[in-house]
Amino acid sequence: MNPDRYRVAPGQAVHLKDWATDDNGGLSKEEGQARLPGLLTRLADLQERLYAEGQQALLMVLQARDAGGKDGTVKKVVGAFNPNGVQVSNFKVPTEEERAHDFLWRIHARAPRHGMVGVFNRSQYEDVLVTRIHGLIDDQEAERRLQHIRAFESLLTDSGTRIVKFYLHISPEEQKARLQARLDNPSKHWKFNPGDLEERARWDDYTQAYEAALTTSTAASPWYVIPADRKWFRNLLISQILVDTLEDMNPQYPAPTFDAASITIQ
């Protein structure tokens, strides 16, 4: 499994049809599930080092269509982290206060401080996706906002925050199956929104909007197109990318300010 296969190269034109939604990385489900626990253990260790060091931050951006698996990713992958060192933020319809500011105002306020892992379950990209599809902004304004997002992400990286962005790529058939499963299960009705069907009808429009958003991939804040039809592979691939990213950040425990050998606890 080579995570670089799923990384959007800087300056690359993105055509989502070129990315398989049911890719398994050449692994069986049993092989993938056997590998995951070791990666999650390593994630927990690296996060502890990041928290103890307090000099860097990691921001994980999750974007997907409805039923794409954002919440499942948070539960299965982010769940490996110590909650004390994680901040999960959900960006929904802006409030009146948020609309009275620039579109990045509410986003910047939730950027992780040094030592923390920040998770954006939906993100700044909502303001160039939903708004564009529903005609709240035109293509020219959407491109201006993408430029602002590039600058914003550059500011974060210059300030010690590593950014990694995941687009969970599912097929219309898989989305239909997941939405139907919610509808068929009374305990999942709270997750079903009839409005999701209206968004589903705009599948091609969202494809074009996502393709434009994914062009913001850079060396410092890359996008990964994650095949998400297979939940086990989604979790495995994201975990591997996070491990690779944190290992590259190489957080270190701070040097002690005392001589441990000279201390005796009575």
From TrEMBL:
It comes from the Bacteria. Coiled coil: none annotated. The keyword Flavoprotein does not apply. Residues 27-252 form the Polyphosphate kinase-2-related domain. Transmembrane segments: none annotated. The keyword Cell membrane does not apply. Signal peptide: none annotated. InterPro entries: P-loop_NTPase, Polyphosphate_phosphotransfera, PPK2-rel_1, PPK2-related. Keywords: Kinase, Transferase. This is Polyphosphate:AMP/ADP phosphotransferase. It comes from Deinococcus carri. The lineage of its organism: Bacteria, Thermotogati, Deinococcota, Deinococci, Deinococcales.
